[in-house]
Write a structure and sequence with these properties.
The chain contains 12 helices and 12 strands. The longest helix is centred in the middle third of the chain and has 15 residues. It is globular. It has a single domain, classed as TIM Barrel. The chain has about 325 residues and is of the alpha/beta class. Helix 1 packs parallel to helix 11 and helix 9 packs across helix 10. Helices cover about 35% and strands about 15% of the residues.
């Protein structure tokens, strides 16, 4: 299938407007897990996305403490080099090898990043990472200029095709850009968490930096299939069970916002999830959206978002529905 594509900044990569997010397929047993996950279903979900035309996968070393990258490699077995999707991964979160339950540490030391890259290359069974992203700003005392310079050196050496940042603000982007061009940014962005539309997305557009947003369905809240009962049944090993967006008044508002998308979805013959993802893609400067799936049928629910262009009237309706929920701009300007 052919899905709509966009150029990712100045990288030369033309990516589909939706990509497969491999956070949840990392499985359970670590601090930010989604709970236990069947690897076979994960592989089938990735394959369904590729068969549907998706041409990139976003993962991270820390997802499942290495396991997500191994699952991605398994899903890509037997696919020719010419047909393989782009593989994006991340560095900078280092876990305790002796206690998987501890939160990972934000580490930016050059030698640590280089070690992480080699480990990711082995797990993914590739010779080069297409997009390598610093997951979070380092908290170990390493200056941004130093860890960003390391990623640029890896790009120069041909170990990675493009260098990027994730979860960095405008001030940090400015520092990095003075060292060398930021190829792409990965911020959180959804109808519930809209702040990126006010700062980092416009910055990226101005600097010809690609943007791939994550959690466009806010971890399932905007999928159209979430409910109070589902929230109440989340297991303790699912990080969402501890997230305020899945509790109390905020959960009520979030589920109401998802329901407000249903008339648009019904008119278009698509899912609520597809409309929620399409809303993030309607913002100038957004190249693509990372969308997760734990089962193949979940891919079928959101892949249509790649080709949806919401009308001005639909964007107005969504802006009204979003009033009082979350924060940040509610409608892209014409």
């Amino acid at each position: 299938m052919a899905l709509t594509r966009r150029q990712l900044g100045q990288t030369g990569m033309e990516i589909t407007r939706v990509g497969f997010g491999a956070w949840a397929v990392g499985g359970g047993g670590w601090a930010f897990a989604w709970g236990e996950q069947d690897d076979l279903e994960s592989v089938q979900a990735i394959r369904r996305a590729l068969d549907s035309g998706v041409n990139w996968i976003d993962t991270a070393a820390v997802y499942g403490l290495g396991h997500s990258e191994e699952v991605v490699a398994r899903a890509l077995e037997g696919i020719s080099e010419a047909d393989r999707p782009y593989v994006f991964t991340k560095c900078g979160l280092v876990w305790d090898q002796h206690d998987r339950s501890l939160p990972p540490r934000e580490v930016g030391r050059p030698e640590s990043i280089r070690e992480e890259l080699e480990a990711s290359l082995r797990r993914l069974k590739v010779e080069r990472i297409d997009l390598y992203q610093m997951h979070w700003p380092a908290q170990d005392g390493t200056p941004l200029e130093e860890y960003w310079g390391t990623l640029l050196e890896l790009k120069q050496a041909g170990k990675i095709r493009a260098a990027a940042l994730s979860n960095h603000d405008v001030a940090e982007l400015e520092v990095a850009e003075r060292v060398g061009h930021v190829d792409s940014l990965q911020p959180p962005f959804s109808l519930i968490k809209r702040e990126a539309a006010a700062d980092v997305i416009p910055w990226c557009r101005e600097h010809q930096t690609g943007v791939i947003v994550y959690s466009p369905m806010q971890a399932g809240l905007l999928s159209g299939s979430f409910s109070w009962d589902r929230a109440a049944s989340l297991r303790p090993d699912d990080w969402r069970s501890r997230d305020p967006e899945f509790q109390g008044e905020r959960l009520r508002r979030n589920l109401g916002l998802a329901e407000a998308l249903r008339p648009i979805a019904d008119r278009r013959g698509v899912s609520v999830a597809a409309v929620a993802v399409a809303w993030t893609l309607a913002w100038p400067g957004v190249t693509g959206a990372i969308v997760g799936a734990r089962r193949p049928e979940q891919v079928d629910g959101w892949v249509a978002a790649a080709d949806i262009e919401l009308t001005a009237e639909e964007l107005d309706q969504i802006a009204v529905a979003a009033e009082g929920s979350g924060g940040g701009p509610r409608r892209p300007q014409p």
